[in-house]
Amino acid sequence: MSERAMKGTAGALIAATLRAYQVTHVFGMADPVHVFHALDRGAIQPVTVRDEKHGAIMAHGYAKATGRPGVCAATTGPGATNLVTGLFEASKSSVPVIALVQETPAHLVGKHAASEVDQAAALAPVSKWIGRIVNPAKAAEVTRAAFRVATSGRPGPAVVLCPADVMGQMAEAPVYAEPGCDRFPSFRSRASRGSIAAAATLLAAARRPVIVAGGGCILSQAWREVVELAEAYGIPVATTMTGRGVIADAHPLSVGVLGSSTGGRHGLGRIANRVLAEADLAFIIGSRTGQIVTSDWTLPRPGTKVIHLDVDPVETGRNIRTTVAMIGDARETLVDLLEHCREQKIRPEVETTAAYLGSLRAELAGLTEPLATSAALPIQPERLLREISRVVDAHTLITADASYVTGWALSHVENVAQGCTFISPRGTGGLGWGLPAAIGAKLADPRRTVICLTGDGGFGYVMNELETAARYRAKVLTVVFNNGTLAFQKHYEEKLFGTAIECDLLDVDYSEVARALKCGGERVVDPDRIGPALQRGLAAEGPYLVDVVIDPRAKAPIVSLESPGEASGH
Fold first, then answer.
1. Helix (H) or strand (E) holding 172
2. Could you count the other beta carbons within 10 Å of the beta carbon of residue 353?
3. Are 456 and 510 in contact (CB under 8 A)?
4. For 322-433, where are the alpha helices, taking DSSP H only?
5. What are the beta bridge partners of residue 157?
6. Helices 10-20 and 139-151 meet at what angle, rounded to 10?
7. In this predicted model, what pLDDT tens digit does every residue of 101-128 receive, in sequence order?
8. Which of 288, 384, 498, 564 would you label with 183, given CA atoms 20 to 30 Å apart?
């Protein structure tokens, strides 16, 4: 939309600005009310959620599915504080979510008005930026600033505080979208020539290099460049959990998802961990090098040279001694690095061969294949994951909830395409994330097949949003891994104390819940019936839930929960 002067309420100026940025959905509870009532309903669909937290998560799913910032909204007081968990994940996962938050009328602040709280103080720890509209003529300007800040540098959530009395006031102001800020990254920086030359020199000397592709590669849409670099020099590619999708699993240089959540006895992360442990050079791209991906900061091992490419200079060298820091956008910097290597005719003699990687996969398959094909009752989760892999195609987006489902899904569900194919709450690991994210992603891109994988514990946080999915015809297939317990907590307590307290849940058929909330659904207790149930869910006209009863004794491939000697990730 081109720039134009507009006269209207502050709420109307915000609504017109959202239209200029090509926003298609706003997830929230109809406040700030002057914004909602001014929305162009032919272009922007307001989505009324059952909890503001879920609205923030839906906006997160929307952003990851589209590459555009997601927008959520909340009312004053408890509505604003409900946003905290969703914005916290967006902040830690570097995802641009813009929150429009109604605020106590300015003239009532400090008078104990209904639901009054210092919303700026409450949201500051989980936000990249907070702006407040104190003058109706500044409404569009502050909203543009939110888009600019949220999508630039390391992306993150931006909050626009909207005092209720200001929202209804009239003003005239220009309305437009700043170029590029309707997508992220909006402004792409490039690493210096010196750091590119230094990185190329390290690559040339490496014999056992490995690429560690983090979530920044997905945010930057750098997956093609990562694979081009890997193929040019025969470098294995490991990903972080948020980097899942950078390389297809079937690629001969793919070694799986790194870390302690996928590196247990039956986890495919064992291969990635081993390759990183043996590396003489780790090229880390777009990763915050947190606790899980580095296996409690034990990988890479001391003595391994490290190149760390990240858009945020705070991250390079934070946790791992870095030989060469490259500060810039992942995609643009890799383009420059590849060009430099071609010009300088760099040809490293890499010792880690595809045949060696194939032997590691074959060794692990000997452990995992019996579980993936098991006919045992209760159903083994690996069998369920194998059946899910069979219905995944190049158009599938998986949203995985936290806890055990993350480890299982990111280890065992086959990724057949590049790009944003998996999203999970790995910034914070909060339960109850998968379903709202799936709804947001599906509404954002109806052409994609969206499958939500969740445990019964996590699903209990958000099952009310099935009604939202039905109301807005968000055709999401939800698969509940139902083991009747909070398994992560239970197995953790059993390892520490030999017993667990208050972890078991009632036997609930969540397909009955789905049907009560106007969705389709069925329960599966026989492994041979998983595949047909998934196919029925995918063929259904609306949202569908498959409740699969799995073995409560089964553990995800999380290293910390295994007995000594079980895991051999590194």
1. strand 170-175
2. 12
3. yes
4. 330-343, 354-372, 381-391, 404-412
5. none
6. 40
7. 999 988 888 888 888 899 999 999 999 9
8. 288
Tokens of 312: 């945020």
Distance CA 503, CA 489 (A): 7
Yes or no: say if 106 and 165 are a contact pair by the CB < 8 Å rule.
yes
Q: How far apart are CA 80 and CA 70, in angstroms?
A: 17
Q: Sheet harboring 158-163: ordered strands across?
A: 45-48, 25-28, 70-74, 97-103, 158-163, 129-132
Token couple for 385? 């994951």
Record the tokens describing residue 107, joined without a space: 């003239």
Two structure tokens written together for 527: 């492994």
Residue 563 pLDDT > 80: no
Q: Residue 516 and residue 486: Cα distance in Å, rounded?
A: 24
Give the list of residues 6+ apart from residue 423 with CB closer than 8 angstroms, or none. Answer: 60, 61, 64, 65, 397, 398, 399, 400, 437, 441
Within 10 Å of residue 170's Cβ, how many Cβ atoms?
12
For residue range 491-538, list pLDDT tens digits in order. 999 999 999 999 999 999 999 999 999 999 999 999 999 999 999 999
Closest by CA to 329, choosing from 306, 310, 315, is 310
- In degrees to the nearest 10, what's the CA dihedral of 242, 245, 247, 251? 120
Structure tokens, 318: 């934070």
Q: Which single residue is written with the structure tokens 């005719």?
A: 345
Give per-residue pLDDT as tens, 60-72: 999 999 999 999 9
- How far apart CA 76 and CA 438 sit, in angstroms, is 26
Residue 432 pLDDT level (bands cut at 50, 70, 90)? very high
Q: What is the mean pLDDT of the chain?
A: 95
Residue 476, both tokens: 């999401």
The DSSP string of 435-490 is HHHHHHHHHH-TTSEEEEEEEHHHHHHHTTHHHHHHHTT--EEEEEEE-SB-HHHH
The reported pLDDT for the residue numbered 181 is 98
pLDDT, tens digit, 9 for 90 and up, residues 220-258: 999 999 999 999 999 999 999 999 999 999 999 999 999
Q: Which residues contact 219 (CB under 8 A, 6 or more apart)?
A: 94, 95, 155, 184, 185, 286, 330
> Edge to edge, what strands does the sheet with 476-482 contain?
422-423, 396-400, 449-455, 476-482, 544-549, 520-524
Instruction: Quote the CA–CA distance of 140 and 127 in Å, as a whole number.
Output: 20
Please report how many Cα atoms fall inside a 13 Å half-sphere around the Cα of residue 64, on the Cβ side: 37
For residue 333 the two structure tokens come to 């910097």
